[in-house]
Design goal:
7-stranded mixed β-sheet; single chain; about 25% helix
């Protein structure tokens, strides 16, 4: 748990260092060394997040495949980027990236659920950073239309799959999740 600290005692040099000094519960991310603050997601976003995470978590526990959690949890990909993905999965063989309660490295799967203010970041900026850092599966879900944009990492590049409605197909978990 991050407590209150005096900024003057440790002057941050990067946006990620500033992010690490913020009190717990502040909704923000660092993208390419710029701090972005966001309002809390709406009810429908959170309802979909809970439903999807629950379905994935049941499968992950049943198969002992790793760990699955929903936001907020800090994910530090590199020195310029710290995210709080809506849902993430870390395969059992990669659980070593969990250090001091934070994730320091790329989760195997990330799911972002679009909000009016986050669509551009989720579809473009985050996709580029997630690809560069080796996220194996990236799903972007529109809670209104239920469209799912799917990216699988192949040869260090994301390959976009055909959009699906109400279905999220994970090659890592060998399962399709419907919502």
């Amino acid at each position: 748990m991050r407590g209150l600290i005096k900024i003057k005692d440790k002057i941050p040099r990067t946006a990620v260092e500033l992010f690490e000094l913020l009190p717990e519960g502040i909704l923000c991310e660092v993208i390419e060394n710029t701090l972005y603050m966001t309002p809390a997601p709406d009810f429908f976003h959170q309802e979909l997040s809970g439903d999807l995470c629950s379905s994935i978590l049941i499968e992950v526990k049943k198969t002992n495949a790793g760990k699955c959690v929903a936001a907020p949890v800090d994910v530090f990909l590199d020195i310029k980027n710290a995210f709080q993905p809506d849902i993430l999965f870390i395969a059992k063989e990669n659980l070593g990236i969990i250090k001091d309660g934070k994730i320091r490295g790329a989760p195997d799967m990330i799911i972002e659920i679009l909000s009016p203010g986050s669509a551009k970041h989720d579809k473009i900026t985050k996709r580029i950073v997630y690809e560069r850092n080796g996220v194996k599966e990236y799903f972007i879900v529109d809670p209104v239309s239920k469209a799912v944009i799917t990216y699988y990492l192949k040869n260090k590049k994301f390959e976009k799959q055909a959009d699906k409605k109400g279905k999220l197909k994970s090659g890592l978990l060998k399962k399709t999740f419907s919502f």
